[in-house]
Amino acid sequence: MKLLEYEGKALLARHGIPVAAGALWPQVPESGSGWMVKAQVLAGGRGKRGGILAAQSRQDLERHAGKLSGARLGDEPVHAVYIEQKLEIRQEYYLAALVNRDLGRVTVVASAAGGVDIEQVPPAQVFSVDVDPLIGLAEFQVQGLKRALGLQGDFEDVVRGVVETLVAEDAELVEINPLVLTGDGRLIAADAKVVLDDDAVHRHPARSTPIAWSTDSKFMQRCRELGVIGVDNRSALPAGKNVSLLGNGAGLTMATYDQIALSGVGVAGAIELHGALAKGVAHTAEVMRALFMLEADVVFINAFYQLRSTDALAQALLQALDSPGAPDRKRVVTRMRGVKQETSQRMLEAAGLFYTPSLSAATARVLALAK
Amino acid sequence: MILVSEKSRILIQGITGQTGRLFAEKMVAHGTPIVGGVTPGKGGSRVADVPVFDTMREAVAATGANAVLSCIAPAYIVDGLYEVVGAGIPLAVLYIENIPVHDAIRMCAYAKARGTRILGPNSAGAVSPGRANLSDLNDANLRPGRVGIVSKSGTLTYEVIEELHRHGLGESTVVCLGGDRVIGTDYVEVLRLFEDDADTDLVVLVGEPGGGLEYAAAAQAGKMRTPVIAYITGQGSPRDARMGHAGAVVGDDQRSQPQNKMQAFSSAGIEVAPLVTDIGAMVANRLHSRTLEERRQR
């Protein structure tokens, strides 16, 4: 879950990292040095796209804020406008802490070449240390980074604060770019990019729903309500007929997606059941109806269970197919494997549906129907 | 075979819960060497006719257990894992998913430092067909054989097994690493075990989008005597789609892209299957040409 800048900065401030005085428009913070007017969007590179504007006077500020409010930046609506005290910048640094998946550790990344995309900075100017989870960020690592950046002053508190924010707030990424050294020698976080761990939201009940959800399709919203994983690809469909698919488990769903998409046929979207079958036939039928919201030309159900019968899945599908707006049965391909799958097969075939136990045969059928 | 065998002595952590009980019954029914289970406060009772203990230490002292399948709720998993490690058990399968990533980091680091190998979190487990089943796979869907499988996913592994069976092949050991972002055991460790395993003629490696563990795996596979065939799923997935594995997001990072991972395997001289349904034939061909080669050499 990505946070907007002002939300991320509130977390940084909680862990002792200095941020500029700021407020959400139409509130305006006190400033004797002018303001920065900043569009709150999730995508990066907003400065280049006119999302950050300087204002010397109150009049400029109102003009800029009015222009950004309710505007769009690229594909994304501006969710809010944040007004900050303008900083006197001596130098810009880069500082981030992130979950390094391959190492299974937290990695701290820092550079004296801040203010630009860190991937554009030559590797020799980027320094990193890996934090041993059993001992935490060690003093020698902090001092090493400080020396590498050529910094004086209170860098220790800032780097410790960034790691603390990452761990205590259950974040996957805390990035400050730039970390500004001001004219009077203070380090201040001038931007904040924070990505929280979706699996730890229950530990932070005060957190509101992700802002990214506000632009989601009805299909995606419905999937979330039903506790299943939805993928909506309708905005990127090639011409011709398309397929919607439903699978159980991430691996099988991705592999099924490949079977169709790599053959050049468009996939309108997908649902990964994510254990929904255990919630019963009625619930699973709702999931099927959600799949039908994609209005694809062909519907592909591919489920593989080891210790469970697929009868409830077959029943749910048949129930959903009786609803208004359901697709024609001839356009539905089912492949189900599970305990006593023959009963599911009889049920589906008796209802006039195509059934096969084989993924290859099911794929061939789907591709033929989508021709 | 690797990791699990008829010499395994298996405990189920949380054996009196719904999931734990099902696993216990399945293990007993299919001859997996389960020796007991642990649920605090339920010591002295029995589930599926195996003894239940209050603590891991008691269970290990009484049974000599050397492997655990953990089936406890996410809220207790970190403490539960510390108890497993404290009891000196060398192998733990963490079946549960959606564990906060910082908990996983702490658990994996502690286990590694103390000599416990974790499979998971979000792992379907490990099974050596006909010998021991420390996984959620149905014994009826397995066939003893000489192909090893290492995969993050559970359900996709079912499909790979199906592919092998279509071509008359079977499995030596199937190892599921888990679909979460940070996991306790990586591909390289399992590939090394397979390389030293006299019962494994070939390894199928299944990768997916997200992270970059596949790159080290490609380097390792490239220097092995045992042939490896790789398949990377998620090639057609839209960017940023989380398909149910916390770890599998294609995203913007070049390293996480399936196509780049496939390229890494190809560059290391490893055959890459385009689709999951191509795997069976490729494995059969490879083993067939290897057999011919060996006959020629004799």
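The CA atoms of residues 70 and 77 of chain B lie 8 Å apart.
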